[in-house]
Write a structure and sequence with these properties.
The protein has 734 residues and is of the alpha/beta class. It is 46% helix and 17% strand. Helix 15 (380-393) runs parallel beside helix 18 (517-529).
C-alpha cells in the first residue's frame, strides 16, 4: 500500500437495502468522525461497481471506476486496515445478468453475458463475468478469522422483548433429506502437506489426459481436500425425494447456497430443476436447449425462454400438477423455491423455517410442513438435529435462552468457500487426480460424466490463528467451548490433528470439547435452553450457517450480530452482521417510500471500528466516539427506535435520527473529552428541539412511490434525495 493518504476507516459501498440506508447514515457518521479528525472514505464493492471495474476497456472515461475490491484486498493485509463491511450481493447468474442489463440501459457499453460461449472472445468475456459471480468479495477481504456474537445490548433487549416463535408439534412431518452416499461428504479425502507444494489437477480418460487446473501453490502445513458428488446418485436421490414428499402430503423444498458455492451449487440446483421437470426434458430437451434453456438458472429463466412454445408450457403445467406442492418464495407472484438459485439460501431459509415451527409457505399462501432437501450430508445433520430437538422439546424461549457465539475458520479462502477455482463438472468418465510437482498423486477419484469434483484447502497459519482465537474467547467468557469437528470426516480429522496439540501446549485441553456437528448441535441447544451459553468453534461453512441459525432463534434476525474479523496482519474488518441485502426491503422502498432495513448491525460495527482506531492510531477522541456509539445503540434498543415494517410508521431514516441524537447526547454528557462535549452539546440540543419537525418531515415523505435511478446501480443524487427527506435534519449535518 503505497498511498500516503490512506483513510482511517473505509465504509463499503454495497447493494440493495444497506446501500439505500448508507445514503442516510453516512453523512451523519462523517459529521461525527470529523470532530475526531477521523477520515471515513468509501470503496465500491457492489455488484454493479465490480462489473464496471472489470470492463474498463469498453467504457468512457467518465464511466470508468477503480477496482476497489482489489485495493481493499491489499489493504486488509496491512496493520492499518479498518473496514466496515456491509452485506453485498453474492451474485447468482440471473442477478449478474440483470445488473448487466440495467447498466447497459444506463449507457454502459458492456458485452452481453455469454450463456454458451463459442468463440475465444466470448469465452474471455464469460471468464471475466464468472469472476464476479458468487462470493467474490468475502474471500478477498477476510484475511482473518471470525469472532461473531450478539452484542450484550442486543441480547439483553431480545430477552426482555422476546420475538414470536412458531409452535412445534411432536408429530410434525417436517424433516431433512440428504444423500446417504455418492455425495461430497462420503467421497472426501484429505491430507496435510509436509512442505510447500505446487499441484495440478488432471482428468485421465480413455482418450488421454486433460489438465483441469495447473500451478496451484500451497504453503507447508496446508490441509488439502478432494471430493466429488455423483450426478447419478444425486438424480436418483432427488427423484426419490420428490415421490416421497408427494406421498407424505407436505411441501418440497431445496436448500442450497448457490451464491457462496458459485460453481457446485448452481449445478446441483440445475439437477433439481431437471428432475422436477424430467418428463418435459425427456420429450423437449433438445428444443429447450435450442431456446437457450439452462436449468442451472432456475425455473424463472426457463419459463421465460419457453413462453412462446405452447406445447412446452402445457407439458410443464401438466408435470407440475403431478408434483407435490412446492415451498414458495412469493406465493402471490407464483415464485417457487426452484425459480432462482439465489432466492433460497440455506443459512437464512432453514433457520426461518425452524423458527416458524417447521413450517414453510405453500402455493396456497398457507403454512405447511415441508421436506427440506439438502443433498450433501456434510452439514445437513445440524438442521436435522435441530428439527428433531424442537419436535421433542418444543420451541426455544428467547426470553430465557443463552447464546451461541462463534469462532470461525475463514481466513485465506479456507475450506469449501475457497474451492471455486478448483471445482469442475466432469465432461467424461475417467479418473481425476491431484498431482504434486514431484509426481506424487495426492488424491484420486474415479468419476463419471456429469459428476461434480472439487478441491478445497485450509492453510496452517489461519488454522493456528483460529485455535488461538478460540482459546482467547473461552478465557474471556468461561463459556462451554466446542470444536464442531467430526473425527470420522477426512478434513475434520486433519484439523483435529492441529487442534489437540495446540490446546495441550497451552494447557487448556480440559476447557474444550470436540464433537461432530450433529452432537454439537444437540449439546448447544440443550445448553442454551438451560439459559447457559456456548462458543461454537467451527470451519468456514458452519460459521456461515450457525451465525444465522442461532441468532435467528435467539434474536429473530442475524442482521444485528457483532461480527469482528481480527485480520492476521493486525488490521480490523468489522462486518455489519449477516442477513443478506434484503431485496424485499428495496421493493417496499420503491413502492411505498418506507425502508424497514435495520442498521443496528452498522451501529455495532461502527462502535468497534472507532475503538479499534483509537488503539491503532492512539486517537483518544476516537475512543470517546466509539463509547458514545455504544451508548447510542443502547438508546435505540431501550427506547424501541428500530424501524417498523409498515408504511406510515417510523422507518430506517427515523432510526438514524434517533441514533444521531443519542450519539450527540452521549458525547455532550461525557467528561473524558471537554472539546467533544462542547462541540456536541449544541448538536444534541438542535436534534432535540427539532424532533417534531424532523419526524414530521420523515413521516410526510412516506406513502408514495420513489425513484432511486436503478436497482443495482442507483443514481447517487436521487438516492440521497429519497433517503434524506428532512430539511431540518440535513441542515444540522450538512
Amino acid at each position: 500500500m503505497a498511498d500516503a493518504k490512506q483513510p482511517d476507516i473505509v465504509y463499503t459501498t454495497v447493494d440493495e437495502a444497506p446501500e439505500r440506508a448508507s445514503a442516510s447514515l453516512l453523512p451523519i457518521i462523517r459529521f461525527f468522525a470529523d470532530a475526531a479528525d477521523v477520515t471515513v472514505e468509501t470503496r465500491d464493492i457492489s455488484l454493479a461497481g465490480r462489473i464496471i471495474a472489470t470492463f474498463p476497456d469498453v467504457l468512457t472515461d467518465a464511466q470508468k471506476q477503480s477496482d476497489d475490491l482489489a485495493w481493499l484486498g491489499e489493504w486488509v493485509k496491512t496493520p492499518e486496515a479498518n473496514v466496515i463491511k456491509l452485506p453485498n450481493i453474492s451474485a447468482s447468474e440471473p442477478q449478474l445478468v440483470a445488473a448487466v442489463k440495467e447498466l447497459q440501459a444506463q449507457g454502459y457499453a458492456l458485452p452481453d453475458y455469454p450463456y454458451e460461449p463459442s468463440t475465444d472472445e466470448e469465452k474471455a468475456v464469460r471468464a471475466r463475468y464468472d469472476g464476479i459471480k458468487g462470493s467474490a468479495v468475502n474471500p478477498v477481504l477476510r484475511e482473518g478469522n471470525s469472532d461473531r456474537r450478539a452484542a450484550a445490548a442486543v441480547k439483553n433487549y431480545a430477552m426482555a422483548n422476546p420475538h414470536r416463535m412458531g409452535d412445534w408439534s411432536k408429530d410434525s412431518k417436517t424433516r431433512v433429506a440428504s444423500m446417504s452416499g455418492g455425495d461430497f461428504f462420503s467421497n472426501e479425502v484429505s491430507a496435510t502437506l509436509d512442505g510447500a507444494a505446487t499441484a495440478k489437477i488432471v482428468l485421465e480418460t480413455a482418450g488421454g489426459e486433460t489438465v483441469l487446473k495447473d500451478g496451484i501453490t500451497y504453503p507447508a502445513g496446508t490441509v488439502v481436500d478432494a471430493t466429488f458428488m455423483s450426478a447419478k446418485a444425486l438424480d436418483a436421490f432427488l427423484a426419490e425425494e420428490i415421490e416421497k414428499t408427494k406421498a407424505e402430503g407436505v411441501l418440497f423444498s431445496l436448500h442450497m447456497k448457490a451464491t457462496m458455492m458459485k460453481v457446485s451449487d448452481p449445478i446441483i440446483f440445475g439437477h433439481a430443476v431437471k428432475e422436477w421437470l424430467k418428463p418435459v426434458f425427456d420429450t423437449y430437451g433438445d428444443k429447450m436447449k435450442e431456446l437457450g434453456v439452462n436449468p442451472n438458472g432456475g425455473l424463472g429463466a426457463l419459463l421465460d425462454r419457453v413462453k412462446d412454445s405452447p406445447e412446452i408450457v402445457k407439458a410443464i403445467e401438466e408435470v407440475t400438477a403431478e408434483r407435490p406442492p412446492m415451498y414458495m418464495v412469493n406465493s402471490d407472484k407464483g415464485i417457487t423455491n426452484l425459480h432462482v438459485p439465489s432466492d433460497v439460501i440455506i443459512d437464512a431459509s432453514m433457520p426461518a423455517l425452524i423458527r416458524a415451527g417447521g413450517k414453510g409457505w405453500g402455493p396456497d399462501n398457507k403454512e405447511h410442513d415441508a421436506v427440506c432437501v439438502i443433498p450433501d450430508n456434510s452439514y445437513a445433520p445440524v438442521y436435522d438435529e435441530s428439527i428433531e430437538f424442537f419436535k421433542a422439546n418444543g420451541k426455544l424461549n428467547p426470553a430465557t435462552a443463552g447464546t451461541v457465539q462463534n469462532i470461525g475458520l475463514m481466513a485465506q479462502k479456507a475450506e469449501e468457500y475457497g474451492s471455486h477455482p478448483t471445482t469442475f463438472e466432469i465432461p467424461e468418465d475417467g479418473t481425476v487426480k491431484m498431482v504434486l510437482e514431484d509426481g506424487t498423486v495426492l488424491h484420486a477419484h474415479k468419476v463419471e460424466a456429469g459428476d461434480i469434483w472439487r478441491s478445497a484447502s485450509a492453510r496452517k497459519a489461519p488454522i493456528e490463528d483460529w485455535v488461538n482465537l478460540a482459546i482467547d474467547r473461552q478465557k474471556a467468557t468461561g463459556y462451554r467451548s466446542i470444536f464442531w469437528l467430526d473425527a470420522n470426516r477426512a478434513h475434520d480429522a486433519e484439523l483435529i490433528a492441529y487442534v489437540k496439540p495446540i490446546l495441550k501446549a497451552k494447557g487448556v485441553a480440559d476447557k474444550f470439547e470436540i464433537m461432530a456437528p450433529r452432537e454439537a448441535t444437540r449439546a448447544s441447544l440443550e445448553t442454551i435452553t438451560k439459559g447457559e451459553s456456548t462458543i461454537a468453534i467451527t470451519g468456514n461453512v458452519l460459521r456461515d450457517y450457525l451465525t444465522d441459525l442461532f441468532p435467528i432463534l435467539e434474536l429473530a434476525t442475524s442482521a444485528k450480530m457483532l461480527s469482528i474479523v481480527k485480520l492476521m496482519q493486525g488490521g480490523g474488518l468489522f462486518e455489519t452482521g449477516a442477513g443478506g441485502s434484503a431485496p424485499k426491503h428495496v421493493q417496499q422502498l420503491d413502492e411505498e417510500n418506507h425502508l424497514r432495513w435495520d442498521s443496528l448491525g452498522e451501529f455495532c460495527a461502527l462502535g468497534e471500528s472507532f475503538k479499534f482506531l483509537a488503539d491503532a492510531k492512539d486517537n483518544a477522541k476516537a475512543r470517546v466516539l466509539g463509547n458514545a456509539v455504544d451508548a447510542a445503540t443502547q438508546g435505540i434498543l431501550d427506547h424501541d427506535r428500530s424501524p417498523s415494517r409498515k408504511v406510515g410508521e417510523p422507518d430506517n431514516r427515523d432510526s438514524h435520527y434517533w441514533f444521531a441524537r443519542y450519539w450527540a447526547e452521549a458525547l455532550a454528557a461525557q467528561s473524558d473529552d471537554a472539546d467533544l462535549a462542547a462541540k456536541f452539546a449544541p448538536v444534541a440540543k438542535a436534534l432535540a428541539d427539532g424532533e417534531a419537525a424532523i419526524t414530521g418531515e420523515l413521516a410526510a415523505a412516506q406513502g408514495k412511490p420513489v425513484d432511486t435511478g436503478g436497482y443495482y446501480h442507483p443514481d447517487a443524487d436521487k438516492m440521497s434525495s429519497v433517503m434524506r427527506p428532512s430539511a431540518t435534519l440535513n441542515a444540522i449535518f450538512g
